[in-house]
Known about the structure:
Tetracycline Repressor, domain 2; mainly alpha
Amino acid sequence: MRPKQWxxxxxxxxxxxxxxxxxxxxxxxxxxxxxxxxxxxVGSIYIVNDLVDIERDRQHPKKRxxxxxxxxxxxxxxxxxxIIIPIVAIGTAxxxxxxxxxxxxxxxxLQLLYSFVLKNIAILDVMTITAGFVLRVAAGxxxxxxxxxxxxxxxxxxxxxxxxxxxxxxxxLLEFNNGNASSVRKALENYNLPLLDDMLRLVTTSTFxxxxxxxxxxxxxxxxxxxxALITVPFVLYALFRYLYLIHVQGEGSAPxxxxxxxxxxxxxxxxxxxxxxxxxYLPGML
Length: 287
């Protein structure tokens, strides 16, 4: 189920937060329930992925310790969980939001395609990961009544996820530069370092520009007539630079979720960005 990976699902709260509904109890509870269901669905997809990649994962220094490759979780039990959990998650979603259930189904289909086909195709593999992040954000927007959610946030979420995915591929390629890369991840045989470095530069720049445009062009009534969101730009720029530092200098980045949970300066930058943006959105209405 990989609970550490569930940190990625926090983006489902984007619609709630940036539409000014963070302190709306009903909306918050609805999104939180949706977050739990999304985590269950994502966890079941990781089970499928581990089943498909069981032999490759057994050759990986870290992945071989996971429950399925190591034999801690019996394969029949894993198969049963991979079937039952999505049915429960989607069935529960149907009880209160058909739109959210449709997003979950779309996410499930996309990730199954990724597990069996797309993850083996260079470039399409990272673009599929990006599409999954966009669906996460869309889920949070559709599950509640959102009035002024900026489309620039979809662009920011997509580009940020692409930034992390490309960085991950780069570090995986370096980690297995002895010729065994393709035995661990097939798509890596069609990547090389110059290509991934160029992709990383392009996506880093695009991510920053998209966020800058969001702070200026957002239609949110909470920011209308002000440029206060520009105050948060230095935090975003530092976070991007910090992650690039971790990739190029510290040799990290092959597991973005672990980097996020471990690197204190990056955590502080994200926290300061979040608190500052929340203050900009909500404090004027409380005064």
